[in-house]
Design goal:
heterodimer; A: 298 residues; alpha/beta; DNA Binding (I), subunit A; Rossmann fold; 6-stranded mixed β-sheet; B: 478 residues; Nucleotidyltransferase, domain 5; 3 domains; 8-stranded mixed β-sheet; 25 strands; 29% helix; elongated; EutC_N (chain A); cobalamin (chain A); lyase (chain A); cobalamin binding (chain A)
Chain lengths: 298, 478
């Protein structure tokens, strides 16, 4: 075979190949036009208490019954370094939700919509907030003045909403719990106005002590997002104290924890907190001292 | 809260025996210090068991009320208990005794006499539930994760209570099968009594058994065999007896329900012997014959028979210890209207619960009208399932619907009683408070499961006002 023959043969072969490729490409492109608008199902929608991945269980009903009592990831079939894909993806999704709850800010529309007074502790960023807990408990002079000028001083009840470690918790629970507390307080002839509720960005629980001193309130009730876990990123607590002061003992706080849709529902928590606020105002105590006074009352 | 205790009484007027127990229920907060209290009964102790006496009759069709009062007084004295101290309890009248002419007046009188807040109950369904709980069948079923039926074979009736693997009662039945359907003199083995249904059976079997004649165990065996076969049939075993329908008291179990295991209670449960004792008419009846026949029946061959915690006392223990429940902490009420007795339950259909306030109100008021008796409206307890995690708007909607729908009760100044299954009663109660006229009496409680046809009693608050005792009386079942 001489060179020109060889050349033409190679050209033929190449032409054949490109021809075929051309066809494949074109058929591929019809495929891409055929894209389905189906959305992948959200794996975090699966109820973990009902997800059971063991293929041939001896007693499925029994296992599911055990699972119904715990949010722990039981019955995932493989453990250690060999989780099933579904399990590992879900774990990472939950972990990401927990991190998001810590690192994202509360929707700036929320305090505006609720009519809260917006404030910020001495922290300037999330990083500072996470690394310097002490700065999350204090306000600078300008903020102190803002609070003093805006809210009613010496109130019976000072409500505070703090982002804490979960912004998701605040967004999920505040719109329901605030009206529930207000309505509950009516039973006891007490009240507060939403314009007097102080919203605190970069807030640690101790911020309520400073607010107590600034406003001279009888009782300060702070709703704050809890450190998220893998079960829920939306858990909120109420830390309630009678005449709190900076540096007071932690035992003076009364806590209502586990407020989220899988724990104590926000409205029911609000109803309970209202009763608690009335009790503190009557007994002029909070925390351990309140418990002791309640028991002595009997 | 600190633990608190309830003193409860149970009195059982059965076909053959009457007994009384006193029990102490401990109410405890199970939640941690940082959560809302979760209050439950933590302990049920029987602190006194009475003598077991034969149910006193003044005539074959009448209960001797005076003799029973005397018995109760004596037993209280023996137990060293002041009747004022008794907070809860139940009088239950069962088996053939429930069919005596004066049964309802006797229990009513007795419930007042036995203590301020002791309820009178009757009905084969309730008896089956109470006996099963007294026998501990609900606990066995839950532990074994099997559906287990308790058969309480008493003097006149056999009550069946079927519990699912969660320990919840799912079906009941009652048959006129018991140890004292034929009574025989201990001394000369002469028959002194034959129940009407057994008379029919004897006639149809064409055998010669009559009141007044002396009998042997062999002669009675055909009758005992039929009774045993009916018990087998009652849980779906053996060939169906032609007399099965004759011996049904109210209804049989639903045949499609699975039964894994059995427990026995009632007097005959103490007679489940392999061999007949030498003196087979020791108790003056056919209890020992029936017990031995049941021991050799298909029930023991084909089902797992679990031991029960109570036998002859199952019903009275059930009445004394297992009728009272508590609801607490997340509740709202006005105290001066308690206790409240015998309120019928009006359950709102689940589909109606998601209606807008006005539509919900219409549905409620329509249903309240069903409870009009001769144009007289009496109070009802409104029951809802509720929402698992309700929004504040949901709560407002429920409250508005309830207050508007119950207007016909409100104008009569009947206290408003609302019961929710899901945990939302405190918020709902506060919303009701806001909508109701000032100082209007109401009770709003949660975590109590009730159905249409149930009746409810609410006790005076205990544990510093944080807890209300509740008795749900299921009179119709299935």
């Amino acid at each position: 075979m001489n060179e020109p023959e060889l050349k033409s043969m190679i050209q033929d072969i190449l032409a054949e190949i490109t021809d075929e490729q051309g066809k494949t490409v074109s058929s591929n492109s019809t495929d891409t036009n055929d894209v389905s608008d189906e959305v992948l199902s959200d794996i975090s929608e699966i109820d973990l208490k009902k997800q059971f991945l063991v293929p041939n269980p001896h007693d499925k009903a029994g296992y599911l019954k055990i699972k119904s009592f715990t949010p722990a990831r039981l019955g995932m079939w493989r453990t250690g370094t060999r989780y099933k894909t579904a399990s590992i993806l879900r774990f990472r999704a939950d972990h990401a939700a927990a991190q998001d709850a810590v690192f994202s800010d509360v929707d700036p529309e929320l305090p505006k919509k609720m009519g809260f007074l917006e404030t910020q502790t001495t922290c300037e960023s999330k990083d500072e907030y996470l690394t310097r807990p002490d700065r999350g408990r204090k306000f600078d002079d300008e903020m102190i003045k803002k609070i003093k000028d805006s809210v009613t001083s010496h109130p019976k009840i000072q409500m505070v909403v703090g982002d804490g470690l979960s912004s998701a918790a605040i967004e999920a629970n505040i719109p329901d719990i605030i009206p529930a507390i207000q309505q509950g307080l009516k039973v006891y002839g007490l009240s507060f106005e939403t314009k007097d509720v102080i919203f605190v960005k970069y807030a640690r629980v101790g911020a309520e002590d400073h607010i107590g001193e600034i406003t001279d309130a009888d009782v300060v009730c702070m709703l704050v997002g809890e450190r998220p876990g893998l079960v829920t990123a939306k858990s909120m607590s109420a830390y309630i104290a009678y005449k709190p002061t900076i540096g007071m003992a932690e035992s003076k706080r009364t806590v209502v924890s586990n407020i989220h849709d899988g724990g104590l529902p926000a409205v029911e928590a609000g109803a309970y907190i209202a009763e608690m606020l009335d009790k503190m105002l009557r007994l002029k105590k909070s925390g351990i001292e309140l418990k002791a006074a309640e028991n002595a009352e009997k | 809260m600190e633990d608190d205790q309830i003193l409860s009484v149970g009195i059982d007027l059965g076909t053959s025996t009457t007994q009384l127990i006193l029990s102490r229920l401990t109410v405890k907060n199970f939640a941690s210090a940082f959560s809302v209290p979760r209050i439950n009964i933590s302990k049920k102790e029987i602190i006194f068991q009475s003598d077991i006496i034969f149910t006193p009759l003044s005539s074959p069709t009448k209960i001797d009320a005076e003799a029973i009062k005397k018995f109760v007084t004596e037993q209280y004295k023996k137990a060293n208990i002041d009747k004022q101290a008794i907070q809860m309890g139940a009088v239950i009248i069962t088996g053939e005794t429930a069919r005596k002419e004066n049964s309802s007046s006797v229990t009513e009188a007795l419930s007042g006499y036995a203590g301020d807040f002791v309820v009178a109950t009757a009905g084969p369904d309730l008896e089956s539930i109470i006996a099963g709980k007294g026998a501990g069948t609900n606990i066995v079923a839950k532990r074994q994760r099997r559906s287990v039926v308790n058969i309480d074979v008493g003097g006149g009736t056999s009550n069946l209570g079927l519990f699912n693997d969660d320990g919840e009662v799912i079906d009941t039945a009652c048959f006129d099968v018991g140890g004292r359907l034929i009574r025989i003199s201990k001394e000369n083995h002469q028959i002194t009594y034959i129940s009407p249904k057994v008379e029919q059976l004897i006639k149809s079997l064409k055998i010669d058994i009559r009141v007044g004649m002396r009998v042997t165990a062999e002669q009675l065996q055909p009758v005992v065999d039929v009774l045993t076969q009916i018990l087998e049939n009652s849980i779906g075993l053996g060939n169906r007896s032609p007399y099965f329908d004759l011996f049904i008291t109210n209804h049989a179990l639903h045949p499609e329900k699975k039964i894994d295991g059995v427990t026995f209670s009632g007097g005959v449960a103490d007679c489940l012997n392999e061999e007949l004792p030498r003196d087979e008419f020791r108790f003056g009846d056919i209890g020992l014959l029936l017990g031995q026949a049941v021991r050799h029946s298909a029930i023991f061959k084909e089902k797992t028979v679990y031991p029960s915690v109570e036998t002859i006392r199952a019903t009275v223990v059930g009445a004394g210890s297992h009728t009272t429940d508590v609801t607490g902490s997340t509740i709202a009420y006005t105290a001066d209207i308690l206790p409240i007795r015998n309120l019928p339950i009006l359950k709102i259909a689940k589909s109606d619960e998601s209606l807008a306030a006005d539509a919900l109100a219409t549905s409620i008021s329509e249903k309240i009208n069903w409870y009009k008796v001769q144009n007289e409206l009496s109070n009802v307890a409104l029951a809802l399932v509720g929402r698992r995690s309700p929004s504040f708007a949901d709560i407002q909607r429920y409250a508005a619907g309830i207050v508007k729908g119950a207007q016909i009760l409100l104008v009569k100044h009947e206290p408003l009683i609302v019961m929710v299954h899901e945990d939302m009663a405190k918020a709902l109660g506060q919303s009701l408070f806001a909508l109701l006229p000032s100082k209007y009496p109401f009770v709003c409680i949660d975590s109590v499961k009730v159905e249409n046809g149930d009746y409810i009693d609410l006790g005076a608050p205990i544990a510093n006002g944080e807890v209300l005792p509740v008795i749900v009386k299921t009179l119709v079942f299935g």
